[in-house]
């Protein structure tokens, strides 16, 4: 059984993103970047933590570093956030990882319903969220539908 450090390393590998960003550097420019995301401060990470209690315990044991003034750094607050993720089937964050950015994510499930990854969207808060810093319901639906479609393609039934 992997220890806390191995679990965090495994999860970090799961959250490693190869991103192609077009238009941010200028017209027609494309940048490739390899990015590691903190589990507790991102919607993608919260989906993974909510699906794996041992991974969540490892994250807490290794410290919940503050990325912004909104980052969850208290174990009890994180536990409650992860409970909500399990209850509603998706996660969000508002300026917890990067100021001026919000995100929504949903789990991707493999055979047997096991969470094998997550899909999400992030952007400026006014594009992601409506009033009260809450994600727009239509966007949440789109992210969940996308996660369900990927899950079905992986052979999961009921998504």
Sequence stretches where pLDDT stays below 50 over 5 or more residues? 1-5, 17-32
The radius of gyration is 16 Å
Overall pLDDT? 83
Give the helix proportion (percent range). 40-55%
Neighbour order of strands in the largest sheet: 3-4-5
In DSSP terms, counting alpha (H) and pi (I) runs of 4 or more, how many helices? 6
Q: How would you sum up the global shape?
A: globular
Instruction: Write the H/E string, N to C.
Output: HEEHHHEEEHH
Number of strands: 5
Distance between the termini: 30 Å
The proportion of strand residues reads 15-25%
Structural class: alpha+beta
Explained architecture:
The chain is α+β, with helices and mostly antiparallel strands. The protein has helices spanning 4-14, 43-51, 53-61, 75-88, 125-128, 137-153, and strands spanning 17-22, 30-35, 91-94, 102-109, 115-123. The strands form 2 sheets. It has a 3-stranded antiparallel β-sheet with strand order 3-4-5. Helix 1 (4-14) crosses helix 3, helix 2 packs across helix 3 (53-61) and helix 2 packs across helix 4 (75-88). The longest helix has 17 residues, at 137-153. The protein is globular and about 40 Å long. Mean pLDDT is 83; it is low at 1-5 and 17-32.
Short recap of the structure:
The protein has 159 residues and is an alpha+beta fold. It has helices spanning 4-14, 43-51, 53-61, 75-88, 125-128, 137-153, and strands at 17-22, 30-35, 91-94, 102-109, 115-123.
């Amino acid at each position: 059984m992997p220890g806390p450090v191995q679990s965090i390393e495994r999860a970090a590998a799961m959250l490693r993103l190869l991103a192609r960003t077009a238009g941010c550097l200028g017209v027609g420019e494309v940048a490739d970047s390899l990015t590691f995301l903190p589990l507790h401060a991102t919607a993608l990470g919260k989906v993974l933590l909510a699906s794996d209690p041992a991974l969540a315990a490892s994250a807490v044991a290794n410290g919940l570093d503050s990325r912004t003034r909104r980052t969850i750094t208290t174990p009890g607050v994180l536990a409650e956030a992860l409970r909500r993720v399990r209850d509603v089937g998706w996660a969000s964050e508002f300026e917890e990882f990067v100021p001026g950015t919000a995100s929504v994510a949903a789990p991707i499930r493999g055979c047997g319903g096991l969470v094998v990854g997550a899909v999400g969207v992030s952007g400026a808060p006014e594009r992601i969220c409506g009033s009260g810093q809450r994600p727009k319901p239509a966007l949440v639906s789109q992210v969940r539908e996308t996660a369900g479609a990927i899950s079905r393609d992986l052979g999961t039934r009921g998504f």
